[in-house]
Amino acid sequence: MLPIVKGFFRLLESYLFVLLVACVAGLLFPSVVSGWSSYGQLFLSIIFFLSTLKMDLSRFRDVAKDPWMLLISSAFMLIVFPIVIFQITQAISPSLAIPFMLLAAMPTGMTAPLLSDVVGGRTDLALVITMITSLFAPFTIPFIVQLLAGSAVTVGFWTMAWSLMKVMIIPMALAMIVRHFFKKAVSVSMFTFKPASLLLLAALIAGIIGQQIGAVREIASGKFTMTIIALFLLFAAFHFIGYAVTPWRSIPERLTVSICLTYMNFTLAIFLAGQFFHDAHISIVVILSMLPWTLMVIPFRLVAKRLQPSPAKS
User: Fold this and answer.
1) Is 6 helix (H, G, I), strand (E, B) or coil?
2) 41 and 166 in contact (C-beta within 8 Å)?
3) CA 213 to CA 219: how far, in whole Å?
4) What is the pTM of this model?
């Protein structure tokens, strides 16, 4: 592959670059990109399809030997955790309560196995948590939203649940079938999946911003410094809680749980904020979560190195 092509793909794989391009497109060309929001469900379905294609599910059965532990941890991540986050944020900064709750209610992101490997965690455990939380999310997210923010959305439980099943479970099932029968073709083309997914993510973000351009510009005229700081503090809290909640497990497993709790599927959160919530402030806060999502793994990797036991000296 030519160096210029490699450089182009690396640029496309940068979340910060995608965020910048999407925001600029949405702010400068709202009439062009606003229509893209109507394709949000299609974009997200393709993203889930491509993300699942990259995952090696052959180790799933070997790791999932303790189903009750996995079910309990998933229930904590998808139900208990967002309720606690909402109540705490509601008491401190009510305007951030719904977007923070939405982020906390998301399933683990598809990149969790890779990030777990980066910090010395267990990639196989991260894979299992990712799949289980993704399968439960179409039902837990509508429950949490209706319980805590029912007045902020215009659709009911089953409407939201069916929408989530269409963009999550169906594409994931199709991806598993395709990977099983066309494993070689998937392996050869895998390098294109992440750039393609990020281009679709950029289109999704730009469409949401373009669709709500008036409210976005009004909100953007204020200062977002405190919101960004609050988001970084939120992700730091996610890391701490994720590591502290399972003190009886090994350090690699605790690091993995921390990764799975912190690096949620923010793409799904962006879709939900734009699709079902009419408050542009919610969409903006959720979109800005890409900043700590991208950067917080750097200091956490340094912390993880200190937490890992030193190799025994001979």
Assistant:
1) helix
2) yes
3) 10
4) 0.83
